[in-house]
Structure to design on (453 residues):
């Protein structure tokens, strides 16, 4: 995973660091992205179609007002990677008031025993009383390994070295913990002397008959890359109560292949292992997983600001105004209102020069900025329809009246008008600079992008 992470992050750095995000840069980025995915063992078709989608969306989507093409492109990459690696977050939910029985299957060496320790630790931390049944009677030393691994967290392991039949040990172990009343989660380790899916599923059915598990977890070694798909697919079709743990995502160059391959089968990936220690397991949350893959710690903030901009109903109207070069105070008011709704006003509003001057430029002055925004909205609200449509009629007495009506000062009204006039000028200049070159269909006219950061 490290290589995939590094190459993705390198590609993204180019976008983050570039002064202008244009078609050329997006093309270059998409080539890098494709290479990164392919060297991360992601299936060829998946990698190609994902890259194509990123290119399409980054170039042709309507970019919401107030969002830069850079941020929007980053969001698109993020969206499409999340799609690729599994949209669904399927946390494991057990009923603490009932006895839950979770059975682990998987081929030998896939990481069952290790994962049992990790799951035991995970649920113990969440208040569960956990017991483990050592059902691997095949491998010598299997019980020892289990006991040693779980000793530090004080989880009892039931086993019987003299009993050679796995089903018998499991039956006895379950009875043992059922009698102990205080246990509410039993994890069952199994042997995995299989080479292929068929015998794996057969064993699953046999033990399931005895144990009647709440959930069956297939443990898959991610270093097998795309081959994980066949296992996950067969398993996913065989049992409705099945989920998956992917192991060894720490070391493997093929981790991306395994995750994407399992994701397309629609199987629920619950956790992934990223180390040998008992703490080395994470919930598989595609959103967070992709965030860490892209090294975008601030991804939540970025998504939020883009989504907030998307929510803005008046975006289309504003976009139209910019396109036609006809900005009115009405648009200014819409922008102020949207600014007042946004959480990090400094960050967002500062992208629009005319408005940012009104709200205070420094993000640290957020509270101050919010107050100012409210005053300027009040000013707009005290204007007549005619004034909102045509700012030029606002002079002398009218300024006095608006100030009075809004509980502000004539200076503030003038400040608002000044900023508005400057924004209009800026808009005209930008349009002139771009000449008559057309705007992309539906998008922000290229010359105006500077207004949005
Ligand atoms: N690096 C790494 N090693 C792991 C992980 N999970 C399991 N292993 C190692 O893989 C080997 C096989 O694991 P084990 O739990 O015994 O597999 P089992 O045969 O399915 O029970 C052991 O050496 C584990 O330490 C993981 O997430 N990361
Ligand atoms: Mg084992």
């Amino acid at each position: 995973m490290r290589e995939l992470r590094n190459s993705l992050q390198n590609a993204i750095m180019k976008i983050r660091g570039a002064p202008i995000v244009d078609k050329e840069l997006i093309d270059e980025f998409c080539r890098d992205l494709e290479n990164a995915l392919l060297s991360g063992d992601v299936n060829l078709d998946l990698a190609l179609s994902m890259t194509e989608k990123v290119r399409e969306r980054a170039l042709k989507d309507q970019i919401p007002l107030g969002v830069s093409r850079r941020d929007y492109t980053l969001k698109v990459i993020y969206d499409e990677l999340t799609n690729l690696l599994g949209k669904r977050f399927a946390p494991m939910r057990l009923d603490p008031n009932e006895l839950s029985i979770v059975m682990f299957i998987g081929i030998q060496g896939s990481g069952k025993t290790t994962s049992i320790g990790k799951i035991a630790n995970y649920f113990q931390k969440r208040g569960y009383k956990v017991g483990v049944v050592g059902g691997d009677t095949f491998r010598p030393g299997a019980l020892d390994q289990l006991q040693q691994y779980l000793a530090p967290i004080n989880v009892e392991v039931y086993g019987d070295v003299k009993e050679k039949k796995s089903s018998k040990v499991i039956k006895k172990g379950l009875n043992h913990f059922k009698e102990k009343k205080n246990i509410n989660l039993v994890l069952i380790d199994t042997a995995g002397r299989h080479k292929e899916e068929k015998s794996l599923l057969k064993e699953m059915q046999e033990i399931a008959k005895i144990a009647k598990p709440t959930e069956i977890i297939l443990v898959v070694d991610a270093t097998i890359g795309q081959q994980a798909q066949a296992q996950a697919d067969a398993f996913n079709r065989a049992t409705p109560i099945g989920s998956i743990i992917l192991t060894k995502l720490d070391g493997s160059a093929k981790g991306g292949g395994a995750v994407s391959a399992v994701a397309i089968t629609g199987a629920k990936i619950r956790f992934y292992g990223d180390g040998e220690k008992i703490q080395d397991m994470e919930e598989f949350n595609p959103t967070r997983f992709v965030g860490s893959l892209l090294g975008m710690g601030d991804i939540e903030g970025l998504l939020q600001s883009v989504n907030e901009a998307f929510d803005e109903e008046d975006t289309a109207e504003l976009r139209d105004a910019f396109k036609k070069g006809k900005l009115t105070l009405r648009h200014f008011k819409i922008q102020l209102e949207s600014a007042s709704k946004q959480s990090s006003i400094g960050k967002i509003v500062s992208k629009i020069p005319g408005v940012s001057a009104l709200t205070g430029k420094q993000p640290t002055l957020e509270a101050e900025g919010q107050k100012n925004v409210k005053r300027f909205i009040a000013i707009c609200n005290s204007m007549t329809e005619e004034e909102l449509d045509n700012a030029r009629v606002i002079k002398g007495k009218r300024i006095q009246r608006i100030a009075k009506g809004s509980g502000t000062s004539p200076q503030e009204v003038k400040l608002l008008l000044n900023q508005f006039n400057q924004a209009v000028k800026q808009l005209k200049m930008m349009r002139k600079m771009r000449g008559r070159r057309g705007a992309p269909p539906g998008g922000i006219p290229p010359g105006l992008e500077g207004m949005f950061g």
Remarks:
- The chain has three domains: 2-87+296-300, 100-284, 313-452.
